[in-house]
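Re: the request from the purification team.
They wanted to know what the chain is likely to look like in 3D before they choose a buffer screen. I agreed to run a prediction and write the result into the notebook, where they can find it.
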Amino acid sequence: MAGVPWLTREGWFPPWLRWGFTTRHGGVSRGPYESLNLGWDVGDDVECVRENHARLAAALGCDPDRLGTVRQVHGRKVLLARNQEQARALRGTRADGIVLAPRDDTPRDPAGGIAALVRVADCCPVVVASLERPVAAVLHCGWRSTVGGLIAEGLRRVASEAGTTAAALAAAIGPCIGPEAFEVGEEVVQKFLLRVGPAVVLRRPAWPRPHIDLQLAIKTLLVRHGVPADRILRFPRCTVSEPAEFFSFRRDGHRSGRQAGVISLVP
């Protein structure tokens, strides 16, 4: 994506989907928010954040004022937008996923493609898309939403809008807190054991507490709910251990920026 570096893989999804996971590079913010901070409420200069969104929107091919976002609450609610105006209207709504699904008779929008993002700083951004029709979702998968059913709901909504099943979907799992850094308490372990399984819980003699492999948990749930394993792409990058590349709340606290998972349906 010109001017805004991001992680993506050409050909993974159909050509009507432009998608990726941003890093902290390509923006104008300074200090702890350097440089492509996309978080409005973390203490960064508002004009810098606005310019960062403008750069991202330009690369996605849409007006920044019509970029779909939600107020993320670590739940399982997924909202739908069929055009840029509907995507823009989602702002402030409590949810953790956005599905983009234009109607077949939707006219081409001269303002550009319909786009959406979720913001993360250790949580995992996930992109899910149909391989048959222009329907895609971006999900904000923290540990609570992962064990709380967001993956299943996101897949259900995409499959329903595309008129297909999860077997005809593909997914990409973005950078997040890695298993070496994701130390948790036993109460969190029990939730993952119940909702995902023991493979995602890691214990080592040198660790005083157990750790969770969040990316593996997400992939496990994607497969369990019907997405073929060979259609799931993982970016095994740890936001905590790569300060030059990613923002991290666990590493830096509230004075940290936000990167994003982004999708845009090319008009």
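For the purification team: The chain has a mean pLDDT of 95.
Please add any questions underneath this entry.
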